[in-house]
Amino acid sequence: MVDRLNANIRRMNIVAHSDAVTGLPNRAAINHVLSLGARRDGAEGCRGSLFFIDLDGFQSINDTFGHQNGDKLLRLVSRRIVDVAFGRRFEDLATCTTAFGELCDACPEGIVFARFAGDEFVALLPGVNDSAQVEQIAEAIVDSLEEPFVVDGHKIKVGASVGAACAPQDGANQHELLRLADIAMHAAKQNGKNNYVLFDPNLRVKAMERNQLAFELREAINSETLTLHFQPKVEAAGLAVAGVEALLRWSHPARGMVPPGKFIPVAEQTGLMPELGAAVFDLALGQCRKWADQGLRIPVAVNVSAAQFDDPRFVPSLIDLLRRHAVDPAMIEIEITETMVMTDFGAAAARICALRDAGVTISIDDFGVGFSNLSQLAKLPVNFIKIDRSLTESVAFSRKAQAIVRATVNMAHALGHATIAEGIETEEQAEFLRLAGCDKMQGYLFAHPMPAPELERWLAASAHKTYAVRDRAQFQHNATPSPCCA
Ligand code: C2E
Ligand code: MG
Ligand code: MG
Hints:
This protein starts with a helix and ends in a 10-residue tail after the last helix. The chain has an eight-stranded mixed barrel, surrounded by five helices. A hairpin with a 5-residue loop joins strand 8 and strand 9. It has 19 helices and 16 strands. The longest helix has 21 residues, at 273-293. The chain has two domains: 2-199, Alpha-Beta Plaits (2-Layer Sandwich); 210-478, EAL domain (TIM Barrel), CATH 3.20.20.450. By secondary structure, it is of the alpha/beta class. The chain binds ligand C2E and magnesium ion (2 copies). Residues 231, 247-248, 259-261, 264, 280, 303-305, 335, 365-366, 389, 422-425, 443-444, 449 line the site of ligand C2E. Ligand C2E binds next to strand 9, helix 8 and strand 13.
C-alpha cells in the first residue's frame, strides 16, 4: 500500500517537473534551478552561461507534418543538441530532481538542459563563462541542426535562433541571465534567424525601446492614428493606372510619423503582426468598398508579413473579410516576399493556390534580394514578380543590375508571370525597364504614396499624364485614361 502510494507520488512529481515529450526538465524545474542559483549568488557568486534556443518556423512544421511528427522532431532536436553541440550523452545530463521526483535543493553541477516552452529550450552551463567558449557553444548549437532530420519518412529541416548570456559579466543572477539570453535570442531572430547572438548591454536598451514602441503600437491598432496611403502602379506601355499599393502609416501623437520600416519589424517581433495585419486588411477592404460605391474600380495591393501568411487561418479569414466588405476578390492583391515562400514551400504553395482559386492576385515583392530557388518559384501560380528597388536603382549605373533585371523579366515571362518594377525615380530607369519588357512600374517618378482623398483627386485630374517623362518621345502619347477607375 505504502509502496503504491510512494510510486504514485513519484509519478506525480515527475509529471510536475519534466516534459512529457522530450523527457527533459520542464519550465518549472529550470525556474527552480535558476532560483537556487540566484539564492547562492550572494555567498558564492555565480559563474556560468545560459543559452536560450528557439526553433525557427516550428509552428509551420507542426501545421504541415502534424503534431505527432512535431513532437518526434522535438525529441530528435533535443538529443542532437546534447550529443553534437554539448558533446554529452542525453542520459548523463544533470537532473533537477531527486530519485523521488522532487526538485533538488542544491544547484546541479553539470549541464542543465530544459524544454522551456513549445519550441524553446534553455541550457545552463555552470562554470562556463569565457566569451570565446560561449560563442563556440552557441555556434555549435546552430550548426548541430544543419543536417535535416528524418521524421516518419519526411526529411525536415529546422534551424534555431540562439541567445547567450554569461554570469557574472552580463547579469548578477541566473534569473536575470534568462531574460538577457532571451533578449539576445530575439536579436538573433531579427538578424535573419538560424544564427546566434551573445548578449551585450546595447541589446537591453534596444529591447526596452522595442517594448515601449510595441506597447504604443498595441494602443494604436484600430485607432485613427494608423492609416493607409496608396501609391499608384502604372502600365509600362501606356502609363495607365493599373492599381495602387496600400502602405501603412502611423501618425504618432508624440513621435510624429513613424515609418513602417521601424514599426512593422517591432510588430513582427512582439507578436502584434496578426492583429495589425488584420487591421490593415480591414482598412484596405473598407476603402475598396468605398471606391466601388463611387464607381471606382481600383485594385489594391496589400503587403503581408510572414507572421500573417504562416497562420493557417490567414486564407479563410481573408476570404471571410472579402465577403463581409462585399469586395470583388479580383480587386485585391497580396504582396509576399521570396523568403516567406521559401521557408516552408509546401504550405506557402497551398495557400497561394487557395488565394488564386478565390480570385485574389499575388505578387512576389522585393524580388532579387533573396536567394530564391528559381525552379521552386516556377511552380507557384503567382501573378507578378515585383523587382526590388535596389535593382531598379542600380540599372542606371550597373551593367550587372541591368543583366539581372533583363534576365528576371525574361525568366518571369517564360514562366507565365508578369513583372512590375518598384522604386522608379528617374526617366532613365523607367526607359530601361520599359525596353527590358517590364509590364508595370511604380515609383516616385509617377506618384508618391498618398492618402485616399488625395489619390482620388490625383486620378480625377489625370495627374499621371504630367509625369516628368512627358518630354520623352516614347511616353508622350501615353496619357490614356485609367482602365481601373472607369
Ligand atoms: P514595400 O512593400 O517594398 O513598399 C515599397 C516602399 O518603397 C514603400 O515604403 C514606398 O513608399 C517606397 N517607395 C515607393 N516608390 C519609391 C521610390 O521611387 N523611391 C524610394 N526611395 N522609395 C519608394 P514604405 O511605405 O516606407 O514601406 C516600407 C515597407 O514597409 C514596405 O516595402 C513593406 O514591406 C512594409 N509595409 C508597409 N505597409 C505595410 C503593411 O501594411 N503591412 C506589412 N506587412 N508591411 C508593410
Ligand atoms: Mg510591397
Ligand atoms: Mg517592395
